[in-house]
Amino acid sequence: MAIAVDLDEVLAYSLKSEIEWHNFIHGTNLKRDDFNLVEYWKIWGSTRDEAVKKILRYMNSDFFDAIEPVPGAVEGIDYLFGLDQLVVITGRTDEVEKKTIDWLEKYFPQKFTELLFANSYSSLGKLPSKKSDLCKLVGAHTIIDDSPSYATDCAKNGIRTVLFDNVWNQETILIPNMRRAYGWKGCKEKPGVINLIK
Ligand SMILES: [Mg+2]
Questions:
Q1: What is the CB-side half-sphere exposure of residue 110 using CA atoms within 13 A?
Q2: Which of 68, 69, 101, 189 gives a 20 to 30 Å CA spacing to 8?
């Protein structure tokens, strides 16, 4: 059995880098709080297809290569590593497999036994996978994810789900099997991942 961990905005502080890229390239003044929707293209004022191409340009930029870990993630993974086998299940497209493997090896060496891509935003037209199906494939009983749709799908399919608090999941209704974590460490009265998974 295993614990599945999402990549972007749970391990990798991607939104910070993505905003810096967008503001630099497109002359915008976006801030983290503007991203209260998972559908980026609505915030960018473009169509979904345009957004997929935009994400690909971003993923080929130096900004993407400079993503840092989410605060507390390195210590959090060290903690989980002692509990169970760990796998990464990301919504990313496998077009960035090499960069993703290199990034994980740089910040989380030897911590994960599998890396699976759900292909949410494939520019090659690949069909996305449900994360609940990928969890079953690798025997994950638990997932840590910040996406409202992925988290809800997994919880509905009997997977213990830790919803990693983020700007775009503030309205997400907690259903059975789902609890909200406030970062990795949390704070007083607001549990973090390491308080919820023991
Ligand atoms: Mg995420």
A1: 1
A2: 189
